[in-house]
Design a protein that fits this description.
By secondary structure, the protein is α/β, with parallel strands linked by helices. The chain has 11 helices and 10 strands.
Length: about 325
């Protein structure tokens, strides 16, 4: 008869991941069958698990009477305040679904100025069993949490899809469809207004290539003069100069595809301030629908809605 290993000597998932040289999340994805994991990685993880004697626990039926906490990391830095309205429906849906399985949601405000260890200790002290991170991306923190067997799920951040569970929107397709809408309206001179989002560098890339693909299908050459990058929050300095130069060129665009609603609103404000009308002189479109357009002080911009209730479904 073979002697069974005691629970104390059974290898853990994070130990298998370390031996296979992958993250704990990647190892978990291999056993759950989720995510886009290469055949080589899958083979390496499974062979390592077999060699170490690791047995992945079977899914257990949900015990609705079980209580626990799930942390929801939410950025509170000034440049992200415009997004809070956009997140309300998603957060409400996450809370509702977690309540159904006996878990409480704890919103933990985070800032880029905070150290990993401070955020980590907040999560540990609150005895959170898992972490959702909205937009915020910090690989060193997430790796530490996963090594402590606290799973991390990123929401609306596609920078780490190969390492952590992620819930994202298709930014490429959204930008493509938005640009196609402008083309279908008869626009052929379409500019792209970009900005830098610290946690979301891939956002800009995906939306630019969606915009580019739509133009290339119509054999419209990308005009470098039509590509503008502006800093969120600036009023009349850099944005004004960029847009002034753009509109006073020999062949100005008739429409702008903006990275998101905040940048669209800033574009609208700058253009109207220097004497242009929207949509009379130029049209503006942005993906997201992240602003509260019921407010009278927010300009009504053509936007593309993202179903945040659906994003928040568990």
């Amino acid at each position: 008869m073979k002697n069974k290993q005691s629970d104390k000597t059974l290898p853990k998932l994070k130990e298998v991941a370390a031996q296979a040289k992958v993250s704990p999340t990647t190892a978990s994805m291999v056993f759950s069958g989720r995510g886009r994991i290469s055949e080589n990685t899958t083979k390496a993880v499974r062979e390592t698990a077999e060699r170490m004697g690791y047995v992945h626990p079977a899914r257990k039926p949900t015990n609705k009477s079980k209580s626990g906490r799930v942390a929801l990391l939410m950025l509170i830095d000034r440049e992200w305040t415009f997004i809070w309205y956009f997140l309300n429906e998603m957060i409400a849906r996450i809370e509702l679904d977690l309540q159904k399985i006996g878990l409480d949601t704890v919103i933990i405000p985070v800032s880029h100025n905070e150290k990993d260890k401070d955020i980590y200790h907040k999560i540990i002290n609150l005895e959170c069993q898992a972490v959702f991170s909205i937009h915020y991306g910090k690989d060193s923190l997430f790796s530490r949490l996963e090594n402590a067997e606290i799973p991390v799920i990123l929401i609306l951040n596609n920078n780490y899809q190969d390492k952590y569970f992620s819930i994202c929107v298709d930014d490429f397709q959204g930008a493509y469809e938005g640009t196609r809408h402008l083309l279908n309206l008869g626009h052929t001179k379409i500019g792209f207004v970009d900005t830098s989002r610290e946690d979301l560098p891939i956002l800009s890339t995906d939306r630019y290539y969606g915009y580019r693909k739509a133009l290339e299908e119509e054999r419209i050459e990308i005009q470098k003069d039509y590509l503008i990058s502006c800093t969120p929050g600036l009023s009349s300095e850099n944005p004004d100069n960029s847009f002034q130069t753009l509109m006073e060129g020999s062949s100005p665009p008739t429409a702008l595809f903006c990275l998101d609603d905040e940048i669209a609103l800033q574009s609208w404000s700058t253009l109207t301030r220097i004497g242009y009308t929207i949509p009379g002189d130029i049209s503006i479109l942005a993906p997201g629908d992240v602003l509260d357009y019921s407010k009278t002080y927010i300009a009504k911009i053509t936007t593309m809605h993202i179903d945040m209730k659906y994003v928040g479904r568990l």
